[in-house]
Amino acid sequence: MRVFTASLATETNTFAPLPTSLASFEETCLYPAGEHPDRPTLFSAPLWVAREQAAERGWTVREGLVAFAMPGGITTRAAWNSLREQLLDDLRAAMPVDIVLLGLHGAMVADGCDDCEGELLRQVRAIVGPQTVVGAELDPHHHLTQAMLDHADLLVSFKHYPHTDSVERARELAALCAATAERRIRPTVGVADCGMITVLHTTREPGRGLIERIQALEGRDGVLSISITHGFPWGDVPDMGTKVFVYTDGNPAQAAALARQLADELIAMRDALQPGELSPDAAIDAALALQATPLAEGERAGPVVVADGADNPGGGAPGDSTWMLRRLIERGVRGAAVGPLWDPIAVRTAIAAGVGARLPMRLGGKVCTLSGQPLDADCRVLALARDLRMSVFGNSQASLGEAALVEADGVLVSLISVRNQAMGVEVFTGLGVDLVALQMVVVKSSQHFHAAFAPIARKVLYSAAPGVVSSDLRQLPYRKASRALWPLRGG
Predict the structure, then answer these.
(1) What sign does the CA torsion over 342, 344, 349, 353 have?
(2) Is the pTM of this model over 0.90?
(3) What is the Cα–Cα distance from 190 to 249, expressed in whole angstroms?
(4) Strand stretches in 266-420, DSSP E
(5) Is pLDDT of 36 > 70?
(6) Which of 85, 431, 457, 489 could be cross-linked to 383 through a Cys-Cys bond (beta carbons 3.0 to 4.6 Å apart)?
(7) Helices 252-268 and 207-217, axial angle in degrees (round to 10)
């Protein structure tokens, strides 16, 4: 079996002010053909699995480009054209192949192209022809388009949010593609539109139970694969929205009926799926009230973790907003930490001053009005790191670049120079913070923090501070997405 594998992924917030350039990929994850390291990254899981299959089943694997950029604004035309053509050139050089395995996101938007994945798959299909099996792994926050369905034999999405199952889903994709190439199965797809936009946290009910039910259906009675398209609400494209898609073995009517059944179940639980966000002050109040209450029997001591999802770099936000930090300082809260705050200028200032220095610093609030005003504070530099790294989805790591821990008017702030969200506790512990000793930890993340931070938290809360990834979707100036989607339409 001759297999080609490559990745090209980013999640585009079309309302975000920071364009996604070639430098954005270089800063996050960019490996030319054959240079990917010996560990999986989130969107290179198909490549990692192809390597496994080469060792176990004797596949001949040709590796192409692996490129991923931290979510941001619209991808520049130059970056999209360059990276797409590099991947396609790698594929041409690998021909002929029996299978193509791609790691994609599904919500990449470039200047001049609203459906990058659909266009990439179209060009891949034009190169390999109709007989080669083309499969792609997707992030569930994708936009499912007809072009993606038309030009791929199989699409498999991560099931969990946080995305802790990328390797498992890549193994499923590879197995299904191999069975298709060997003519043991004939995948047929059915799609159902939910007419809404939702968030499916699989760390709690009812999302967790729905995923367990879906997985129990797969591999039985001809059902090959079931995926949920959460959609990415901050991507203003015509196909934005929540959908369910099902692959069955040669039975399109069965696939369509099951997709519709599951979509209706998802619609019925839409209100219960919402995370229940609090205003910044309400979140602070709740955290302080809980910490003033004695531990119940069997309850774990630890900080209350508050998610500042509106400033989540993983959704395209700058990661430099000051709303939560400002309220903590104004209210005189002690035993609190905030991070990571993306502010390369503040990091360089802290490095220049050195550990132990006390100085006035201007923190955050630099990118746009939704970042809030810059915060001027009396700061003490507590720790520095030349290359702070955090764990990401298992054994992968991400660099946060030069970093500093400062105490700003009594609040600990983790400052970083490479933009990222809080996924690993090393955002704080890598700078010497004892998280368990704190009352409250505010993380700039929507949900990916949960896998690492929930185990040390007394409770997890979600806050609705202002930001580029605000959950108040009715305030977003959509031009292409349908306003008939719930909750945009109300009701």
Answers:
(1) positive
(2) yes
(3) 11
(4) 304-308, 336-342, 358-363, 375-392, 396-408, 411-416
(5) yes
(6) 431
(7) 170
Which residue stretches of 239-371 are H helix?
A: 252-268, 270-273, 280-291, 323-330, 344-353
Place of tokens 């692959």: 247
Q: What is the per-residue pLDDT across 266-295, written as a single tens digit (0 to 9) for each?
A: 999 999 998 889 999 999 999 999 999 999
- From the list 380, 378, 347, the residue with the least C-alpha distance to 364 is 347
Local confidence band at 491 (pLDDT 50, 70, 90 cut-offs): low
Identify each DSSP E strand in 120-240 by its residue range. 133-138, 154-157, 187-193, 223-229
| Distance between CA atoms of residues 170 and 369, nearest Å | 40
Do residues 467 and 179 make contact, with C-beta atoms less than 8 angstroms apart? no
Helix axes 116-128, 77-94, angle to 10 degrees: 20
Task: Name the residue type at position 175.
Answer: A
For the record, the structure tokens of 146 come out as 């007809």
Has residue 232 got a pLDDT over 70? yes
Compute the 3-state secondary structure of the chain and give helix, strand, coil in percent, each to the nearest 5.
35, 25, 40
